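In this section we walk through a basic example: taking a raw amino acid sequence and producing a predicted 3D structure, encoded as discrete structure tokens. The instruction is simple. Fold the sequence below.
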Amino acid sequence: MKLKFLFFTLFICVIGFSQNKGTITGVLLDKDSNNQSLPFANVQIKGTKIGTNTDVEGKYTIAIAPGNYTVQFSFVGYETTEVPVTVVANETVTANSSLGSGSYKLKDVVVKSSGGREKETALLLEQKNAVVIKQSIGAQEMSRKGVSDVEEGLTKITGITKVGSRGLFVRGLEDRYNNLLINDLATPSNNPYNKYIALDLFPTDIVGVIDVYKTFNTNIYGDFAGGTFNIQTTRPSKSITKLSIGIGYTTNNSFSDFLIAENADSPEGFFGLTGKYRKIPSALGSSPASVTMTPEQSLNAYKDSGFNVADNKSPLNTSIGFLNSEKFDFENEKSFSYLLSLSFDNDYKITNGVQRNFNNNPSGYVYNSNFITTDYSYETSFTGLVGLNYNTKKLKLSYNTTYIKTTKSLIQDQFGIANTSVSTNDILIRTNQLDETAYLNNQLLGEYALTDNNDQNIKAGVSYAFTKFAQPDRKFFSGPKSGDTDITTSIAGNNFIRQYLDITSDYYYSGLAEYNYKFGKEEKNKKFSVGYNGYASNMESSYRFVIPTTGPTFTGPINSIDSQLNSYLANNTFAFRESSNATWQAKLFQSANAGYANLLYNFDNKWEVNGGLRVESTLRETQYRAQGSFDDPFIKLSYDNLYFLPSLNVKYEVTDASNMRFSATKTYTLPIIMEAYPIEYINADGTSTRGNPYLLNSENYNVDLKYEIFPSAKELFSVGLFGKKILDPIERTFIANAANTTITTYLNSDQAILFGAEFDFLYDLGRINENLANFSWGFNTSLMHTQVDVKPTFTDADGNVTTSIETHQKRELQGASKYLINSDLKYQFNFNSDWSNTLSLVYSVFGKRIYAIGTGGLDHIYELPVNQLDFVWGSKVSKNIDLKFSTQNILNPNIKFKQGNDGNAPLMDEATIRNYKKGVEFSMSLGYTF
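The resulting token sequence is shown next.
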């Protein structure tokens, strides 16, 4: 409460603070767009560090001490203008102006600062001039659309959609086919179940531009088939301090009954700091052995981490952020700037729906289990970034440190039929789980001009990262419910189980070095590049089990069962013991090292060719033990590949405002870590996920053809065709184990053929009617057809080569949608001269796709389409205060997975195997810029 009062007091004091200054105000117009307003242009008091940007209506305001000044207006691709003004104390002087491209042409524009690249118009110009097929979204567009994080921003780009917690899909392909760079350097994932770090952890305040490459160029890693995302962190162009706070309400979530682990229902739990209470007992040592703790040791070990949960009402979601940046200009074009960003978010989520799986009987496929599953999850995230930048006329140096910590406290209740062969239908399985991730990345980058005119330059960078993923004391118990609040359960080896999963990356090194030589009259169109980039990482895991010795069967309260367990421990009735096996430990080393050469060449100012070769060596070395003795030597699997990856990108300038593009490349795809990692991850209901260390990398042959036209500096229309051939595609499948429960695992198919089309446009509706001048419409879609040929044999997770068990020998590619659609409608208006507003309605949908491949005569599991509709109202109340109100997931669709009915026998039960709704989320944020 004291902290809230302090923030409130500081906020009021700052707003109330004023000086005896004058004001310069005005409107900046765009000559090239019929004198429409020019938003986000630079307005600078010449010879000082005082400046601002025009708002969405082209308006600006500067408070300054009395005196004579020159106001300088500039925007990338436009000629700079200057207006002299005289400022008088407590008075307002108006200085309007307009900018035009004048003698500039689009192809003359060379963006030389990240500040310029953040603007929508600059990015459209860059997209037009680039030879490779790429799209970008900058700080300006993300601000206009009310985007708060990188992941949300990327969904505004053609062919990209977000799928729950499974990340981004590009052209309908799962995240295993995508890759991530930060400032051109490779970076690890904080979660081994994902290909790259969750992008919703990066607030847009720290991002200048996000580049999305859908075609391969030799200076980026060959590991992608969908897209490569390159996050360029922002370089401050002015001094700014900003404080932001936010709250959120979600229907059927907020103010609802909410279960949370007892030790997480505390101030420490609010910030996600309870992992220290869930560490493996010291009595069990750092490596497993046949140790049975005494009852007293067991009681002491788990006094702060039991099975109890707190039953409360879920509060509102909250967020807070702080940003401070300063730029200092010195003589001889030298400057230094820094950026500090801190943010914290929390989120309470409740989902409820069916969860089932099928097995076969003589009459057809019937439920093996049939639950109503309720998840109560409390999630926290903290992101911190420190950026330092030093520039001279020839040298640019930057250092960035990024730290991210996330937690997820989950209570899951599965209630229903655990096994249809048993008649009881009142079984409850409770899981109590904490996920923790940590990510630390340090980057040092530099660029140096070897010549005064920058015809030759070198750039280099290195990074060191550390990651950790842990599930300490993941535990569950089960039994028949007794009334509404009690459970009858047994203390036994298959009940009250505790798991300890820890996956730590000892190091992740990444580096790059590149030499560029520009030549010819048009220096931007003739360039030779040669370089190196690569990474190396080492990871080790520990997966241990602790179970009870046999104890009594008893009935007790579900939410506060520890009192009876502790009573039994105090009376020496049972104890906990280690139950890990020889598979508890595994190791993984991965590396990629590549050299490349590339030539960008212009012919007759119409044709541009960008071609080159990348030679990339990859190594994936896995060490693990099979079931057996702890003293057995590690099984060592090594996959060492050398790839020759050619790249050809051609652009033909049809007119000054339109291009035709062609690309032909070869790439490869690595599996996500846990897809190929030798761990069988076991759930409370007996289902499991098992990595397959015998997975091969995929090889991808890609071709793209695209036509694009830029009717104005703010509009775009494009149509593209693409095709891919993927050898040894990696796919998710499911099989049954001896107990007839489902194991999710992974395999290589023979090959997949993909082809499709993309359409994208940004349209100013003022072209239709001048009354619609404040409206604009963006739309993009991807349509795709896929076909997979299945291998007659496959290698399972034990290394056995067996006959294929897939139900269909020809089918669609797992994880690929036939269509994706993204669209947004924007309306801009003002309440008064200082209060500008932008309303955006954003829609997306993806087509039905295979979630897991069917085996053993059973058809595939399908993920059904999800229609997402969001509304965002961004309001710039003044130059200091901005508000954002959003309503997300307005349609609140039923997220549904279905068992297909095209197997060797009919489904005898309803096909839905998982469904839930997320609720409609209403959120509001307030930002104050000092």
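Looking at the output, two observations stand out. The longest helix spans residues 2-16. The longest strand covers residues 364-391. In the next section we compare this with other chains.
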